């Protein structure tokens, strides 16, 4: 009777050990469950616009959020913060960045040099992080283009003025022609009446 009892304890020990291992693995997976959602991965803007780099994350704890900017000119850290605390904004972006608890940031009055890759890293604890990228294209309004549009509009206005003048001249000529024709018809009618009176 004793040997089967020992075998039963061993089996129960293995089962409990396996259950504890599964629970530990599930706990590790839950603690590393940082997810990040980026609704718009590419943004096109013009100079002086305010741009929202929108993201959303989910995790079990309070993460550290960090944004960096990589462009043709340099790579620099923009801001780092934990939701609910004051953000540590770099000197280059001091008065131009607003942070939000969902991880999003807003850039005010963007310029051409703000074009590039914006990388967000959400870290719950060492070894548990997620990152994403948003590409920003900033184009400037060229004064040459505005000059071309202004010249084109002036040219179209001049052409319209010439056409209106021609239409007015044509209208006056047509009116004078009709008036002369009526006068001639009236004269010819009067002559015919006079001839008829003479014949009578």
Automatic annotation (TrEMBL):
Keywords for the protein's UniProt record, in alphabetical order: Glycoprotein, Membrane, Signal, Transmembrane, Transmembrane helix
Chief place of localization: membrane
Signal peptide: 1-31
One of the GO BP terms on file: filopodium assembly
Bilayer-crossing regions: 146-170
Compartment(s) where it occurs, according to its Swiss-Prot or TrEMBL record: Membrane
Domain of life of the native organism: Eukaryota
Name of the featured protein: V-set and transmembrane domain-containing protein 5
Source organism per UniProt: Octodon degus
Gene: Vstm5
